[in-house]
Design a protein that fits this description.
Among the domains are: 57-192, 6 Propeller (Neuraminidase); 416-495, Immunoglobulins (Immunoglobulin-like); 498-574, Immunoglobulin-like (Sandwich). β12 and β13 form a beta hairpin. The strands form 12 sheets. A 5-stranded mixed sheet has the order 32-39-38-34-35, with no helix packed on it. A 5-stranded mixed sheet has the order 41-48-47-43-44, with no helix packed on it. By secondary structure, it is mainly beta. 3% of the residues lie in helices and 43% in strands.
Length: 575
């Protein structure tokens, strides 16, 4: 098998033959007038990084720029981390050299709550199998772990934060692992994921981590699987290649609680589709996969169709309630499309990737190439993504590009929360991204006022109030006309229960005890030393009034809510 560097060096020669054989002059089909594609920045192998897979998506940092990884190029030709501003200014912010943290990064970066990045590499490092690293723009990189072949190798999928606060991932050798947060300790897990895992894990609202594989399952056509934070993996759906499609390319959990994803093939016409995986917390038997849309057939001569075909990336849930995605083939130019779809299946093709010399998929074309990364919505309201190849740098393998999909006119700026949907504890600090946040006058969590500290026009830090309940964050800013404007996040915050104090800390059976903390809304269970309390009241989200039950034992008090459980640091003494 060729290494990634060998593949990159031999790719252009094969690409020329393909491009000359398939180039066709095509007439443009009508487009949806409200959105438009724009080439934001052309990556260049000789100047900086190039050929970005960015499995996952670009990440907006606190400076408002979009950060991504490139699998090749740079000073040592081992790839780079780059950032691009919406105004098309690019910087190569880290050059991989094959030693520290490895080389050829294919996975997107993962932003942590402290505004540092986790990342992974598939090769290089101390053992040659890649590793996990932490990167801080302006400060540098620290290696967290070097894979040794037994605990994993060839890692091209970004980490994701679960409800327990730790980060989880898997490798192309099918192993699973955890990186603790805070702390950054690597821990291998016992589970193995199905063959050819695709797309990053998704932290479900039930505490499980969900993922897809493009192979495996009863028909070997792909699966949806879930994993516990202990590393127990279970296949919960097998694709058949019929209307449900085949070779799924990632998941997202939308605001309605259901999962959505794309398939690269199968569907009504063999060109893939979009599906909904209906989700009911803790009731696996209630999970149902619904095909939402099948892409149409592609003309074998022109490679065209009206809506696109064969998506290679997942979807993004946008602030307008729609899901946005891309395809790698079809459309009016045969080079793929950008589209949106409602959670009910209403589909609209928004724009086409341009076509010059067969889309740039063969590394000699212009302006576009294969989009492996999902779109990300910037706080300016536009969507951004990368293509693996194409571009105008003909002498540099056409190293791919960063592109945008913008509404015309631009809609209301977007408000996002780091790592959302997110689980946070009362009194924790949360980073909020948006526009004009230096003119902020108020922040609320589901209507509860929060303390905040502006950081820049594109981000601020807010403290989760003790009375917070599950729901969106809203910020009120002063707009350009001097009036107030309120923006609401499309993500909901999920408040974890925390016990900070017991009042009193001892007493007989029947004693009323105040359990103080936060995140108690919807509490379903209270125990004293393991004995269930039969009488308690959630007075406020930060206070439970409970009565010591008969048979209670001296020990810690545990409160259980839909978002998890909290254990008191103090023991309650039963007199």
């Amino acid at each position: 098998m060729k290494t990634r560097k060998q593949f990159i060096k031999t790719f252009p020669a094969r690409a020329v033959a393909l491009a000359l054989g398939l180039f066709v002059a095509l007439a443009a089909l009508p487009l949806h007038a409200q959105y438009f594609y724009q080439d934001v920045y052309e990556l260049n192998c000789s100047v900086g990084g190039c050929l970005p897979y960015d499995f996952g998506q670009l990440i907006q940092w606190t400076d408002g720029n979009l950060y991504g990884t490139a699998t090749s190029g740079g000073q040592y030709y081992d790839g780079t981390i780059f950032d691009v501003s919406p105004s098309a200014t690019e910087n190569d912010v880290w050059q991989f050299n094959g030693t520290l943290a490895g080389s050829y990064p294919g996975a997107a970066l993962t932003l942590r709550p402290d505004n540092q990045f986790f990342g992974v590499t598939p090769q290089g490092g101390d053992n040659g199998y890649g590793g996990v690293f932490v990167f801080v723009p302006g400060s540098g990189m620290t290696a967290v772990h070097y894979f040794n072949g037994t605990d994993g190798q060839d890692t091209e999928t970004p980490l994701v934060q679960a409800r327990d606060g730790n980060f989880y991932g898997f490798t192309n050798s099918l192993t699973t692992y955890r990186v603790t947060y805070p702390g950054g300790v690597f821990q291998p897990l016992p589970g193995t994921v199905p063959a050819s895992p695709s797309g990053p894990l998704v932290a479900g609202l039930d505490g499980y981590l969900y993922g897809t594989s493009s192979k495996g399952g009863t028909s070997n056509l792909g699966t949806i699987f879930r994993m516990t934070t202990a590393g127990v993996v279970e296949v919960i759906y097998s694709f058949t290649g019929g209307l449900d499609g085949a070779a799924p390319k990632g998941l997202l959990q939308a605001s309605d609680g259901n999962f959505y994803g794309t398939t690269n093939s199968g569907g009504a016409n063999g060109t893939g589709g979009v599906f909904q995986y209906k989700f009911t917390i803790a009731v696996k038997s209630g999970h149902v996969l619904n095909p939402l849309y099948s892409f149409t057939s592609v003309n074998p001569n022109s490679l065209q169709n009206a809506d696109g075909a064969n998506p290679l990336a997942g979807l993004v849930a946008a602030s307008d309630g729609y899901l946005y995605g891309s395809t790698s083939d079809g459309g009016s130019n045969g080079c793929g499309t950008l589209f949106r779809i409602s959670t009910g299946g209403a589909f609209t093709a928004l724009d086409n990737f341009p076509n010059y010399w067969n889309c740039g998929k063969t590394n000699i074309g212009l302006n576009t190439g294969t989009p492996f990364s999902a779109l990300v919505q910037h706080t300016n309201g536009c969507f951004y993504g990368t293509t693996y190849s194409g571009g105008t740098n003909l002498s540099n393998f056409n190293g791919g590009n960063v592109y945008s999909l913008c509404p015309n006119p631009t809609t209301t700026p977007n408000l996002t929360v780091v790592a959302g949907p997110i689980w946070v504890s009362p009194e924790a600090k949360v980073t909020i991204r948006g526009d004009n946040l230096d003119e902020i006058v108020n922040v609320t969590f589901a209507g509860v006022t929060a303390a905040f500290q502006p950081g820049s026009p594109t981000y601020l830090t807010a403290t989760v109030p003790s009375e917070a309940v599950d729901g969106p964050i809203a910020v009120t800013v002063i707009n350009s006309l001097g009036g107030e404007q309120t923006l609401q996040s499309q993500q909901s915050m999920h408040i974890l229960p925390v016990i900070t104090n017991l009042d009193p800390t001892s007493g007989p059976v029947g004693q009323e005890v105040g359990i103080v903390g936060g995140g108690f809304a919807g509490a379903t269970k209270v125990t004293f030393g393991g004995v269930k309390c039969t009488s308690f009241t959630v007075a406020t989200p930060s206070l439970i009034q409970a009565y010591v039950p008969a048979g209670a034992k001296t020990g810690k008090i545990v409160v259980t809510t839909p978002n998890g459980s909290a254990t008191s640091k103090q023991k309650f003494t039963v007199n």
